[in-house]
Amino acid sequence: MDFRAEPEPAPPATPLPLPEADPALVKRWGAGGGELVDLLTEVRERCGGVAAFRLGGPAPTVLVTEPRAVQHVLALRPEVYVKRSHRARLLVGDGVLSATGPAWKRQRRLLQHQFTGTGMRRHARRIDEAAQCTAERWAAYARSGEPLDLDREMHRFALDAIWRTLTGRPLDDETEHELNAVQAVAEVLPTLPADAADARESVADELARIDAVAHRAMAEARAAGTGDLLRVLIDAGDTRPEYTDQLVRDELVTLLAAGHETTATTLTWLYLLLDRHPEAREQTLTAGPQGSAERTRAIQALFQETLRLYPSAWILPRHAAESDTLAGYAVEAGTDLLVSPYLTHRDPSLWPNPERFDPRRFLTPEARPTHPGAYYPFGLGPRTCLGIQFALREATALLERLLPAHTLTLHSPPPPPTFAFTVRPKTPTLATLTPPPH
Fold this sequence. Notes:
438 residues, CATH 1.10.630.10, three-stranded antiparallel sheet, 12 strands, 10% strand, globular
């Protein structure tokens, strides 16, 4: 896909007022108790890819889903459309996910080398070890006929992969149990009290468990002197005074949260989609022999199409730090914006049959839109997720082992999505493994 920035068309001399959704639409949504995604879907359908709506206050919120406007907000004018206090700050503190301004630039610069080129080659062995461990566990499930919890299995794999990458050690049962608190806090973030002290009190026990694991890992990394990712963060403190133990803790928890939650959820959705579309599994396995470039591309296409339907972050909040013209419309300073990959990826004017799961879109360039603002499951621009290559490597390593070895039969129909920190299956997903038919 061509991710080169395209020039923004010249704005009109006099910016137009934003299209605004009928207040009755918002009132009806609130009375019906629907999810925010339902309201945003209707706003887009009625008003287009750049539109305003009011959620009770006097100032409008602007929904952005049109590709050129998406690119403008996220990639071309990031200094105008900024992140404010991140909803995950309670969990990740001042880690790179929630940091802003010069601090964010410094922290990202340190980490980005770890997730490209040499850094990724160094992490590949850890990811492969986690994938092999999961493959052996699934083989035991298949032999015994014991059901597995698909979502829990994918979370264990992804947590094991990032834990090995951070510490150089496999994930043990006790650490996994304690780090389940990361997922527990992430799930309730949207429902916590608005007051920061009250919110922290609501999850105090979970945060204490996370802190204990983080500080124990930091102490062990110092004692061992190993060269894994956590040690990179600790060593930064020798030359960069901002890398206090607190910031190292925050970066560690950021990498644990962002480095396993989104990948695990995507892999869960992938298997739920394969349950409804078994032909996609066969197409992947017949694309080429195991380990071939053709098989790898087909596996990555599975993952990319899953991310199209269920992007890692379904909504990206931004705040206009100054007035601007967006797609010809006037946006006043102080306006809040919601950029939604979920809605862009399901726009029928961009993606033919957008609700259909079809990984071949990512194997044939002409089968998908080429504008960078049409597909951005990891964001776009300078705040694009650092872990893109890490996630693709995880998915490839795991699916290379699991797809040929088993078919997975769900015990109940695939659950609907619920929209929180990520787009998650609403209920647990029990399944049984069987050898594939020959």
